[in-house]
């Protein structure tokens, strides 16, 4: 049984007590996973550690748990194997044509200051003022912080347009983007399906996943799977290195602008990053994570090949749709 996040910790502990009190229930393997530092002060760690294996999603999160005296084992997040499927060539060609010669930067996530929204917007403004034609495609959530981000865009003199799409067909998204192609900032106001993300992440010049505090960084990994260029921070993105992504040690807008310009100056760099990212993403599909990392780590005697447990797949699906 795999449970995740602080809300489930007490329930898992109580389940463990029930199992111990009834021998007929056998000895199920209990795992509690920490995916985010939210509300860690509300977990009874002594109680949980005595009843469950504890895992987390990155070395960054392991460090956060060590602050509370918990030595968790790192099991990375995974992605469905379907994310490795490239967008159809016709879709990619259509969106690439719409993007034209503008440096098109995509950013997807909750409207949250920790996601690095203002740094991304400021970098876009710096590029534009330096004479680099740039376009930002933003997809946030329902959080009120989004207004501050869009106001920052307007304060920089960037033209903002709202883009809404009712049809889930990716070509409908391409048409909607084309209708506002002259804008500097496109605020995408529709649910991004996996097909949308594969197309956007693969056709964009880069996906700006520059969080200043990121437990794992699923968007960066999805970008790699789509054959895109991920721009990531330096917290939880254990999968990222200098070969398969652009890393931002300082996280400043200036650094982001400089790294984005490097893509324009060196097309070969872009090609190398895209190819290396695809290779990395193959190691993080759920089937591989479960069989090579999770089961051997917490239950070596149970690490066998075959069907993968359903709970982990559900966790990935929830993470992929968290901002929809």
Number of domains: 2
Helix content: 40-55%
Computed CA radius of gyration, to the nearest angstrom: 21 Å
Strand order of the largest sheet: 7-8-6-5-9-10-11
Poorly predicted regions are: 304-324
Walk me through what this model shows.
The chain is an alpha/beta fold and 324 residues long. It has 2 domains: 95 residues, no CATH class; 201 residues, Rossmann fold, CATH 3.40.50. Helices cover 44% and strands 13% of the residues. The protein contains 13 helices and 11 strands. The strands form 2 sheets. The protein has a 7-stranded parallel β-sheet, with helices on both faces. The chain has a 4-stranded parallel β-sheet with strand order 1-2-3-4. Helix 3 links the parallel strand 3 and strand 4. Helix 4 packs parallel to helix 7, helix 5 crosses helix 10 and helix 10 packs across helix 11. The two termini are 27 Å apart.
């Amino acid at each position: 049984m795999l449970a995740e996040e602080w809300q489930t910790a007490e329930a898992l502990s109580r389940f463990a007590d029930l199992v111990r009190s009834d021998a007929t229930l056998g000895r199920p393997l209990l795992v509690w996973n920490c995916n985010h530092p939210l509300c860690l002060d509300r977990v009874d760690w002594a109680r949980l550690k005595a009843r469950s294996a504890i895992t987390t999603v990155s070395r960054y999160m392991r460090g956060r748990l060590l602050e509370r005296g918990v030595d968790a084992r790192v099991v990375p997040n995974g992605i469905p194997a379907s994310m490795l499927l490239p967008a159809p060539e016709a879709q990619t060609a259509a969106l690439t044509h719409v993007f034209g010669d503008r440096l098109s930067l995509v950013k997807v996530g909750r409207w949250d200051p920790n996601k690095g929204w203002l740094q991304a917007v400021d970098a876009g403004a710096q590029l534009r003022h330096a004479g680099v034609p740039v376009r930002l495609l933003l997809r946030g959530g329902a959080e009120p912080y989004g207004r501050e981000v869009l106001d920052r865009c307007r304060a920089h003199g960037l033209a903002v347009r709202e883009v809404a799409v009712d049809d889930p067909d990716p070509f409908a998204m391409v048409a909607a983007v084309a209708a506002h192609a002259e804008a500097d900032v496109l605020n995408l106001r529709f649910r991004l399906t996996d097909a949308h993300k594969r197309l956007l992440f693969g056709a964009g010049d880069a996906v700006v996943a520059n969080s200043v505090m990121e437990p794992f960084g699923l968007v960066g990994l999805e970008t790699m799977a789509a054959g895109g260029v991920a721009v990531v921070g330096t917290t939880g993105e254990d999968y990222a290195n200098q070969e398969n992504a652009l890393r931002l040690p300082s996280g400043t807008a200036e650094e982001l602008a400089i790294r984005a310009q490097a893509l324009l100056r060196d097309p070969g760099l872009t090609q190398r990053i895209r190819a290396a990212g695809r290779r990395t993403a193959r190691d993080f599909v759920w089937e591989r994570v479960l069989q090579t990392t999770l089961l051997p780590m917490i239950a070596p005697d149970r690490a066998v090949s075959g069907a993968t447990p359903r709970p982990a797949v559900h966790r990935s699906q929830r993470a992929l749709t968290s901002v929809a």
